[in-house]
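Hey everyone, long-time lurker, first post.

I ran two proteins through the pipeline my lab uses and got sequence/structure pairs for each. Pasting them in order. The first:
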Amino acid sequence: MRAWLILAALAGCGDNARGSGQFEVVGHTDLGARGMNAALAVVGSTVYVGSRIDSQPILIVDVADPAQPTVVGEIPGAVGMSSRELRVVPDRNLLIELHMRCAPDLHGCSPTGGEPEGLQLYDITDRRAPKKTFFYGISGSRLQPRSPHEFYLWRDDARVIAFVTAPPAGPALEIVDLLGTGAGPVKLTTYDPRAEGLESAGIDNLLHSVSVSDDATQLYLSHQQGGLVVASMDGTHVALTTPPAQALYWGGPIGPHSAVKVPGRDLLVVTEEVYPMPYGTGCPWGPLRIVDIADPTAPAVLSTLGLPENAGSSCASTPLLTTFTSHNATAERNIALVTWYAGGLQAVDIEDPALPYFLGELRPEPLPSVLHEDPYLGAVPVEMWSYPVIQDGLIYVIDVRNGLYILRYHGAHEQEILDEDFLEGNSNL
């Protein structure tokens, strides 16, 4: 197997020399070359991989030998529905699937069929034979539509809580106790920052994602038109810490996509997802930003970082149906791993948050063909998409088109990754 390992080394001298890094491909499976893969969940020697298209299963992959990942089972899909996001709580033998309708135009899904949207729970005591246990529905009405879009999984010794964004209508955030009672998950509360005056307008007027502090007292809300805000949580009461007038919005057509807390530092790694027209504003694509939240009432951008393809000067040479935009991040103290759609997987040095820089990247060699090409973003056959997952020093990441990659990082700050038992940007597990 051959992969494109591109080293981004920036020259320097003496004490000012910048570090560099590279990714080693330990293992890869093309997942049957099906294409349109979605997020992954990693638990020990098993990986679950969802699908962005309907009628495709959640695939079960054995990674006991990381060099030879092998599909060993599946959870059937449904017409009109995608398994967009997955999380696992190992000691509870719990797999959570975000079960949502997928679009015919964006994803190539069936215009008919469909099921209620929400969170599907599975018992994975037998990792290769998950059993459905409970379903928690999330919906709105015909005039006030709501759809589960992303969720952050938070837990302590007693509780497992899902913070689910459900745009576009309010309430935009639904907080669910997944353990609940013997009868299934229980809603704890709902919240919408627009009720506190967060004003927004435009093509992406929605609360896109949420992340949560380790003690669950702060929420980091990425509203794509209202801006980035910090909210406080006391029990089931949620309120803005950042006044609406101080929401962090950088004036572009699209605002924050997701914000991931940097461990042990008052910093967020913030992405900006920009799609091609007509579902987005097109090139120039969204960069990465490092945000200071030492004062949560006034988040501040410390720095902005983009690939060469993020520059406006690249737009004339960029294919129409693709995007080179920052998407999902997992952050260690001094290094962030960021999926960047056609820009591959990027390792970013954030030791100095005012001067981040690229350490290295992986843009995998595309498969010759896949069963389901992305109907909207397939012009460049690389589409790194998921939150990277670190387990026992290895990095697991999904390319929508090309499958599951298991990587080892070498270079600046590599020990932070090697020492990590488990880390992902969308949970506190």
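...and the second, right after it:
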Amino acid sequence: MRYVYFLLILMILQNCSFDKNSGIWKSESNTLDDKNIQFKDFKTLLSSEESFNEIVPFNNSFKFNLPKEIKNKEWNDIFFNYNNNFKNFQYTNLNRLILTSKKISKNINNKYLLSENENIITSDKKGNLIIFSIDTNKIVAKFNFYKKNFKKIEKNLNLIVEKNIIYVSDNIGYLYAYNYEKKQLIWAKNYKVPFRSNLKIIKDKLVASNQNNNLFFFNKNNGLISKTIPTEENLIKNKFVSNISADKKNVMFLNTYGSLYSINSESMKVNWFLNLNRTLDLNPSNLFRGSPIINNEKKIILASNNHTYIIESKTGRIIHKKNFSSQVKPIILNNYLFLITKNDLLVSLDVISGNIIYSYDINQKISDYLNIKKKQVTIKDIFIAGGKILIFLDNSYLLIFNINGDLNDVKKLSSKLKSSPIIVDGSIIYLNKKNKLSVLN
């Protein structure tokens, strides 16, 4: 009888370990992710090429040559800058909460934050632009462009800011500019077709795309169209949002059909285009999906459904094609690419040779570090700060890896992430689940 009791107690203890109480793992009740749920009733066609799922240990003789840390004062673009690529940000890694705001909106907020002149800029689904001062810890401006007949429509606002002017495109078809310092609407245009991309500012031009995959160059001073470039329209609408990146001379545009365009930003003429969605099958499980494109002037990095491409910026030539994709926006520093694959591998790649520097299972790293049973996490974002890799989990945990791929620390944030975090002036800033801004230093 004692032996039976001993077995029962042992079984209970095994099932009450850290991984159930910590909240670090993805909920076991949610066994299918959103993409699988969306297409669960359709037959999935198997690819002849197996997805990469290897552990590649780091060679200790290899030395990364990282750029110096930067202490940026602003975050004007939702993807940080014109080429969508993050830097090696300065961050002290103290994980100390230095500010929590009051609730900045009663409504559902949009995903991204901007920062300018110590102000945080965000928007909500009611169409409100909200400007919050970190210095005074209060809302300093609030603006809603929409009249009563749009009251019941949920608004998805695409934002970019420059010199106190917020440029906005939306899912109704409006494009407008608002000066938050003067609290003045500068201009507004109704183009009737919903916009469906991020925004870019290239000198005097504002660049955007609509849901029909038409790319527009607008005059940012009045909102008038300077040039329209039609591209392939998708017959079936998917959840992928068209993405725009840029370098000093060109604009790169990835549409929902899976075609990548390079356009000269001065002449507004197409340099080249490349289709990366070669299938003719319109089964919804084969619709194009990808992460935002990034570039470092000479190379473009693009992750599609199942592959990651390294493309020569000047010609559109595919230099390397890898059989893995990225679930969040990758980062390229010098000639090193850092990404997280769909099967939760942290991968570093040499973009010159195409060789993998290392590949590690993030879930296994957590399991080994905390000495708990391996399960699965949900990744939200990846940054590089202070020469370390910061991986934000959806459930408020922060994983800190050294640049060689070793897990150094697991920290719990003071509150759960709702927005994508940004790093400004050495601090991590994000909107939590209660619509309150948190600033960590």
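Reply from user beta_strand_b:
Welcome! Quick read of the second one: The domain at 2-440 is CATH 2.130.10.10 (Methylamine Dehydrogenase; Chain H). Confidence is low (pLDDT under 50) at residues 1-20, 28-48, 279-285.
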